[in-house]
Amino acid sequence: MSLRIENLSLREVQKLVLLSQRLPASKFVGTARNATLTAIEHLGYIQIDTISVIERAHHHTLYNRNPSYQAAHIQELIADKKVYEYWAHAASFLPMVDFRFSLPRKHAIASGKQKHWFKQDAKLMDLVTARIKAEGPLMAKDFDKKGIKFGEWKTAPTKQALENLFMQGELMITKRVNFHKVYDLTERVLPSSINTTTPTQEEYGRFLITNYLRANGVGTLQEMTYLLKHTKAIVTGALKQMLVHGEIAQVRVADSDYYVLPESLELLNKPLSRKKLHILSPFDNLLIQRKRTSAIFGFDYLLECYVPQHKRKYGYFSLPILWNGKLVARMDSKVDRKKEIFHIHQLTLEASLKNKEKFAAALNKELKSFLMFNKCTAVRLHTTSPSSFQEYFEQSYPELLS
Question: Do 31 and 300 touch, CB atoms closer than 8 A?
Fold first, then answer.
């Protein structure tokens, strides 16, 4: 029989989401690297992004789940075959224990049922595979022909072949060198102990539901299938079965219905530390679905690096700030790596933020750690909105100012 909880308040759902996202981070036992692996396995994926105006998104997201995080952890976990690269809703680091659940997408791309960006050139793909088989792991540049240049938005044919082979599962990424992918045959990368059986549709649907709800607290069908092609029917069928057997429950929040794991509701009995402030990546798992962020936290967010400069309101790369259990501000940031200065070009507070003095103290306390994470020794605050907040900031920890 299905379990149904009639109502949860918005504040309760916010708490449930944050505790499920492990913000703030849970205490860990063991090594810092194991804590990083635990975070990846719990969240299900960590999105990779190329933007590097501050520390890259995957490092940033893990830093917020593991205070002892080090950038070397990911490559070490890949080398240990505990983590691998593939596609979630975007390019991501994924836990190796879940490898078999990447197979439905790979098979769909290989069979042509699901399209990828590049057309498949079977002859070139065979040649690329043969070289890697004979020579060992290779990068795209190892296939480049000297003197041939491609336009800004064009990709070399051999790189397209590598990406197609990667997306359909014949190649995997063994590591990155200066952020360039190194490809090898999947059979040489996978640990021998890993389960490589293709999940049934029911197994796949149950995995998508359980994986999402464990990491996010609550979710809708649209959220659980976000940017995952051809999965809505599969997830819909699994939801019906799991509801009947009481494996998931439904909750109503305001005028919306969400699904939840019954055991996750126990998190509502745990305290949520609201003093800790988090400076979040635009690609953080908490924020990646903007409509959800707006519905649950009342925070409308747009990453404006993709917006023409004259249309930007908050800046090129504004970082949402979580404090007191709410998203209360955003700061447009950039690192000057040569001078080791962290620039806050614009810090904008939400109108709902009332206790600016306590917020300023919490922000400056977190900035001490965040500057170290970004290999900076000083911060320079350029403008604030409202402008009066700059005084609170400067009075809190003046030793940080450059």
Answer: no
What does the mean pLDDT of the chain come to?
Answer: 93
The beta-carbon contacts of 104-111 under 8 Å, at least 24 apart in sequence, are: 104/198, 104/199, 104/204, 105/167, 105/229, 106/167, 106/168, 106/169, 107/168, 107/169, 107/198, 108/229, 108/230, 109/164, 109/167, 109/168, 109/169, 110/168, 110/169, 110/170
Predicted confidence band of residue 146 (pLDDT cuts 50, 70, 90): low
Helices (DSSP H) in 44-175: which residue ranges? 57-63, 72-79, 103-111, 122-135, 157-167
Chain centroid to CA 106? 21
pLDDT of the residue at 29? 83
Token output for 306: 């993709």
DSSP E strands in 240-353: the ranges are 249-253, 256-260, 278-279, 318-323, 326-336, 341-349
Residue 77 tokens, joined: 């976990």
Q: Which amino acid is at 29?
A: V
Domains of the chain with CATH codes: 22-189 (no CATH), 278-400 (3.40.630)
Give the pLDDT of residue 399: 58
Q: What percent of the chain has pLDDT over 90?
A: 86
Alpha carbons within 13 A on the beta-carbon side of 214: 14
A 10 A CB-CB count for 232 gives 14
339: number of CA atoms within 13 Å, CB side?
Answer: 10
Tell whether the torsion through CA atoms of 394, 395, 396 and 398 is positive or negative: positive
Integer Cα distance of 214 and 204 in angstroms:
15
Angle at 36 between CA 166 and CA 27, to 5 degrees: 155
Q: List, for residues 211-239, the tens digit of each pLDDT value.
A: 999 999 999 999 999 999 999 999 999 99
pLDDT tens across 31-79, in order?
999 999 999 999 999 999 999 999 999 999 999 999 999 999 999 999 9
Question: What is the four-CA torsion angle of 18, 315, 313, 366, rounded to 10 degrees?
Answer: 40
pTM equals 0.94
